Amino acid sequence: MKVIEVKQLKKIYNTTEVKVNALNGVDLEFEQGEFAAIVGPSGSGKTTLLNMLGGLDQPSDGEIRIGGTNIQTLSSSQLIDFRLRNIGFVFQAYNLIPVLTALENVEFIMQLQQVPKKERQQRARELLDRVGLGERINSRPAKLSGGQQQRVAVARALASKPKFVLADEPTANLDSKSTENLLDMMEELNRQENITFIFSTHDQRVVNKARRVITLEDGQIISDVRKEQETRTN
């Protein structure tokens, strides 16, 4: 089942000095349950593409369909609600709310969804258990290591029961052991629950784990490799 369909996606940034084609006619599809990495040099369009897929930025041209919905046709309030119910985000900087505990950070998304308190607390506890932080539910971010904060961020991303999770350089601030643990955990969630993960990354460790690697250069896809089936498009 197709989770995402992208057709001729373009993003142009106009500055006083130059016009930048951040994305230049990208065609792409993601199936349910993929574990994919988007790679390429700095300025290739990786983060721009991820922001487009997540509805955080608007394309200059082209079409993005998520679960059959053309997200460009949604109003601002509809898009916010759509993101809330369909997309999980994991950011390089964690983006946890410092005054909230781990449990409250994971609950926060469900609170926005108006999930009843008892139900959201139970799911938040289950998710924190799942990511190995069951004993740290009352800890605030400042009392957690970088790896632990990123695990809370993954639990929060999954709290809304999204169609897919977008992870923008999620291992950039982590040491090798934390990176290995985080990737193992996300791969397990992907395989056991068929959750789609899409990474934007420079990290070779993420690339090694991914079962599909999409390479961008100058805003265009130059290769798309599925590791189980070495298929390449140029």
UniProtKB/TrEMBL annotation:
<dbReference type="InterPro" id="IPR027417">
    <property type="entry name" value="P-loop_NTPase"/>
</dbReference>
<comment type="similarity">
    <text>Belongs to the ABC transporter superfamily. Macrolide exporter (TC 3.A.1.122) family.</text>
</comment>
<dbReference type="GO" id="GO:0016887">
    <property type="term" value="F:ATP hydrolysis activity"/>
</dbReference>
<dbReference type="Pfam" id="PF00005">
    <property type="entry name" value="ABC_tran"/>
</dbReference>
<dbReference type="InterPro" id="IPR003593">
    <property type="entry name" value="AAA+_ATPase"/>
</dbReference>
<dbReference type="InterPro" id="IPR015854">
    <property type="entry name" value="ABC_transpr_LolD-like"/>
</dbReference>
<keyword id="KW-0067">ATP-binding</keyword>
<dbReference type="GO" id="GO:0098796">
    <property type="term" value="C:membrane protein complex"/>
</dbReference>
<keyword id="KW-0813">Transport</keyword>
<protein>
    <submittedName>
        <fullName>Putative ABC transport system ATP-binding protein</fullName>
    </submittedName>
</protein>
<dbReference type="InterPro" id="IPR003439">
    <property type="entry name" value="ABC_transporter-like_ATP-bd"/>
</dbReference>
<dbReference type="InterPro" id="IPR017911">
    <property type="entry name" value="MacB-like_ATP-bd"/>
</dbReference>
<feature type="domain" description="ABC transporter">
    <location>
        <begin position="4"/>
        <end position="234"/>
    </location>
</feature>
<dbReference type="GO" id="GO:0005886">
    <property type="term" value="C:plasma membrane"/>
</dbReference>
<dbReference type="GO" id="GO:0005524">
    <property type="term" value="F:ATP binding"/>
</dbReference>
<dbReference type="GO" id="GO:0022857">
    <property type="term" value="F:transmembrane transporter activity"/>
</dbReference>
<dbReference type="InterPro" id="IPR017871">
    <property type="entry name" value="ABC_transporter-like_CS"/>
</dbReference>
<keyword id="KW-0547">Nucleotide-binding</keyword>
